[in-house]
Q: What sequence folds into this?
């Protein structure tokens, strides 16, 4: 039985004060979340503060990106060893904003995925199609290509300790959510693609949905058999809203 994971992706939002208040609100209500795992992915500079506030709590934390390099002359970059120093449990790799705004291609995402796993943290691998690609009828082709890059580099066994987030790009930050049926279709496709290589890995793989998930639509999305939680952007900045999603996840 898979355990759902709800992870907040704060993106480039927050301040010392707002983060203190947000985490305080989440911790106040976390006892009402029964079975779902919960995590927040914070901007790098707040990881120290986040780790101090969450240590010993049921809420895990992580980062939103990482360098593909081990260390060295890469000005402005952050290494996996630095994230380990702050006891990060998760690292998002291949978010569509990184792919589209910062030119991260499949090979780079696969290299980051490998670094995160090798460091003993859990990569949250984001995949998903643009509106243009959906309308062209190539959603599965795009998602398969994104997944295949990691499978080719790391092998199917690597997904035994990873999370996949299906995030249709047209649904991210737009208020336009995929319907439960649209999302389920792609989630089932992803699981099927993995199952063709390893049934046990596919069965255990947590596949999150991401894209304008909020308190009002979480339950119907999470009721789908292949949707195992959510990667939450905007709605993760509000403790009550985030907790409503966490509770809907189990
Ligand atoms: C995201 O950035 O991963 C995301 C899903 O954002 P939002 O929930 O705001 O659409």
A:
């Amino acid at each position: 039985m898979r355990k759902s994971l709800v992870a907040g992706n704060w993106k480039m939002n927050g301040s010392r004060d707002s983060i203190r208040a947000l985490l305080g609100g989440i911790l106040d209500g976390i006892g009402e979340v029964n079975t779902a795992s919960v995590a927040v992915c914070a901007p790098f500079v707040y990881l120290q503060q986040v780790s101090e506030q969450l240590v010993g709590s049921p809420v895990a934390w992580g980062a939103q990106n990482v360098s593909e390099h081990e260390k060295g002359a890469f000005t402005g970059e952050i290494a996996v060893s630095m994230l380990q120093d702050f006891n990060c449990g998760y690292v998002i790799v291949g978010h569509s904003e990184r792919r589209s705004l910062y030119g991260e291609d499949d090979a780079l995402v696969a290299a980051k995925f490998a670094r995160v796993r090798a460091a003993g943290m859990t990569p949250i691998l984001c995949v998903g199609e643009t509106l243009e690609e959906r309308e062209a009828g190539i959603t599965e082709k795009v998602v398969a290509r994104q997944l295949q890059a990691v499978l080719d580099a790391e092998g199917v066994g690597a997904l035994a300790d990873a999370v996949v987030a299906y995030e249709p790009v047209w649904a991210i930050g737009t208020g336009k959510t995929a319907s439960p049926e649209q999302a389920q279709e792609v989630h089932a496709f992803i699981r099927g693609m993995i199952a063709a290589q390893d049934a046990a890995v596919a069965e255990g793989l947590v596949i999150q949905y991401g894209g304008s998930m909020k308190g009002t639509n979480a339950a119907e999305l999470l009721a789908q058999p292949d949707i195992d939680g959510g990667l939450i952007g905007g709605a993760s900045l509000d403790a009550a809203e985030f907790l409503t999603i966490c509770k809907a996840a189990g």
Summary: The first strand starts at residue 5 and ends at 9. The chain has a mean pLDDT of 97. The chain has eleven helices and eight strands. The chain has one domain: 5-249.
